[in-house]
Design brief:
Largest sheet: none
Keywords: Coiled coil, Lyase, Nucleotide-binding
Organism: Petromyzon marinus (Sea lamprey)
Number of domains: 1
Protein name: Guanylate cyclase
GO molecular function, one term: peptide receptor activity
Structural class: mainly alpha
Distance between the termini: 59 Å
GO biological process, one term: receptor guanylyl cyclase signaling pathway
Strand content: under 5%
Helix content: 55-70%
Number of strands: 0
Order of helices and strands: HHHH
Shape: elongated
Length: about 110
């Protein structure tokens, strides 16, 4: 491409300005034939907007999936009412019990 040739490390491999000018004029004529600058700009903006809409939709779906996984984990490790309060951003009041039992166990090979 023209840009790559202009960036050539060896100066003798780079095109002279006259050649670049001819190519740019030819390129501009091709653009003018197909549409004017405003049409080209609007077309590019539409493509950009469509691309952004797709990215937003993709990221939204990924976010919702991760949120669902986090909520499922929350419901597995906490009682349902406590998990609901945490989801709503509420403070969870500590509960007092007269008597409790705490059981610790180790399954051989499970934590190894």
């Amino acid at each position: 491409t023209l840009m790559r040739r202009c960036w050539a490390e060896e100066p003798s491999e780079r095109p002279d300005f006259g050649y670049v000018k001819i190519l740019l004029r030819k390129f501009n004529k091709d653009i003018e034939r197909s549409s004017n600058i405003l049409d080209n700009l609007l077309s590019r903006m539409e493509q950009y907007a469509n691309n952004l809409e797709g990215l937003v939709e993709e990221r939204t779906q990924a976010y919702l999936e991760e949120k669902r996984k986090a909520e499922a984990l929350l419901y597995q490790i906490l009682p349902h009412p406590v998990a609901e309060q945490l989801k709503r951003g509420e403070m969870v009041a500590a509960e007092a019990f007269d008597s409790v039992t705490i059981y610790f166990s180790d399954i051989v090979g499970f934590t190894a």
